[in-house]
Design a protein that fits this description.
The protein has 409 residues and is α/β, with parallel strands linked by helices. It has helices at residues 53-71, 87-96, 100-117, 129-145, 174-183, 224-235, 250-265, 297-302, 307-315, 327-344, 353-364, 369-385, 393-405; strands at residues 20-23, 28-31, 37-42, 75-82, 125-128, 149-152, 155-158, 200-204, 220-222, 240-246, 271-277, 280-282, 285-286, 323-324. The strands form 4 sheets. Strands 5-4-3-10-11 form a 5-stranded parallel β-sheet, sandwiched between helices. A 4-stranded antiparallel β-sheet has the order 6-7-8-9. A 3-stranded mixed β-sheet has the order 13-12-14, covered by helices on one side. Helix 1 (53-71) links the parallel strand 3 and strand 4.
Length: 409
């Protein structure tokens, strides 16, 4: 599976700083010090509907992570998956009377278009669950043969008790885990499981559903968590720098994935930091496909909204915050984009050297994008009210905003 084209990231003078970011597993800020190549895995979409603002906010957060790292002159190895076979996708295809493969391909293509328009940097590997199956099967077999997994009526489950570090990502109690498991794709009430929290690794073939050769596992398809584990381990290995996604993935997805990987390798932790973006709401409720309360990036683009304004609307909120999308949020972003473009369109202006350092300081402090926007706002006000004599300043601002915030002026 191919990703989307990369937009050019301008090189800035000076040196970026190491990123301090909130780690869900420890509950506090950690300073990341990757090697020459920073490694990040971000969980991708289940492609049964177009990119909504909740998706866009999540991928914007991890795009900022990449831009901070690139500013330190590091390379970035970014991997993302596509869950192109899963119950929600199959259910949507049945509901609409269409082929599930065609639905997944159409929505994945639209997602690529949205990411390109928003200037999100693409992953080096963009891997679908279906194409990952040949690498998933051996991992499930290894877990089963090591006693970390067991069969139940043809299905294969992971035993959470096989990982002594289970629970170290979310730090939830058993009752909370069981509740979230039931809400987010698990089956804690299924009879015969060793532990209600045990997640499925391999689902035996069901009538009328797609299935693949699973070797000694029999025909079936992979569980949700093992998909990401197989892809992450193949391309990044254990101990990569950031595991990212929305806050709704903390449990069960990231908790279970960490335990799968740790049971497979005997190493801990799977990732140095678990980083999670907040949820975006509409009309008082979390924006989600199941509720249908969605604002689509593609719909805004069709209505003529500049993608740079959409990106500024996302950047106006701290990535960890839960916030609500409103018409005013978008209007404010459109107005800000106009002010910034007017400010950099002049032939000279106030010196921008301090602004570049302000942007770096804000973003390396747990991706404080609102503080970064405020810094550019202050420069634009100076430009509007007093101007300046630095002929290079508007270009410096344009390049810095592009490089660090992904907004083309």
């Amino acid at each position: 599976m191919h990703a989307w084209p990369a937009s050019e990231v301008p090189a800035l003078t000076g040196q970026g700083r190491d990123l301090r970011i909130h780690d869900t597993a420890t509950g506090g800020l950690v300073t990341l010090d990757p090697g020459p190549v920073a490694r990040i895995y971000v969980c991708g979409i289940t492609p049964y509907d177009a990119t909504h603002m909740g998706h866009a906010a999540t991928y914007n957060a991890f795009d900022l992570v990449q831009r901070v790292w690139l500013d330190t002159k590091r390379q970035v190895h970014y991997v993302q998956n596509v869950t192109d076979v899963d119950d929600p996708l199959l259910e949507r295809a049945v509901r609409d009377g269409i082929d599930w493969v065609g639905l997944a391909e159409k929505e994945t293509a639209l997602f690529r278009e949205d990411m390109t328009a928003l200037r999100m940097l693409p992953p080096k590997q963009y891997i679908g669950a279906v194409e990952a199956i040949p690498g998933i099967v051996p991992l499930v077999e290894r877990l089963r043969d090591a006693g970390a997994a067991y069969e139940l009526e043809g299905d294969v489950y992971f035993s959470v008790e096989s990982d002594p570090n289970f629970g170290q990502v979310s730090h939830l109690d058993a009752a909370a885990m069981r509740l979230l498991s039931a809400e987010r794709g698990g089956d804690p009430d299924r009879p015969g499981k060793k532990n209600p929290l045990d997640p499925m690794l391999w689902m035996a073939a069901r009538e009328g559903e797609p299935s693949w050769d699973g070797g000694s596992l029999g025909r079936g398809r992979p569980g949700w968590h093992i998909e990401c584990v197989a892809i992450a381990l193949e391309y990044l290995g254990m101990g990569f720098d950031v595991q990212g996604g929305g806050s709704d993935l903390v449990f069960p997805h990231h908790e279970m994935g960490a335990s799968h990987a740790q049971a497979l390798t005997g190493e801990f932790p799977m990732a140095k930091a678990y980083v999670h973006a907040g949820m975006v709401a509409l009309d008082g409720e979390k924006m989600s496909k199941s509720k249908g309360n969605l604002v689509f990036v593609s719909a805004l683009r069709r209505d003529g909204v500049d993608p740079a304004a959409i990106r500024l609307a996302l950047l106006a909120h701290h990535y960890r915050d839960n916030w609500e999308w409103t018409d005013q949020v978008l209007a404010d972003a459109v107005e800000r984009l106009g002010r910034w473009r007017a400010a950099v369109s002049r032939p000279d202006g106030p010196s921008a050297d301090a602004l570049v350092e302000e942007l770096r300081e804000a973003l390396t402090n747990d991706l404080d994008a609102p503080a970064a926007l405020a810094a550019v706002d202050r420069w634009a006000v100076l430009q509007s009210e007093r101007g300046g004599t630095d002929e290079g300043a508007p270009g410096v601002v344009s390049r810095a905003v592009d490089a660090l915030l992904g907004v083309a002026l």
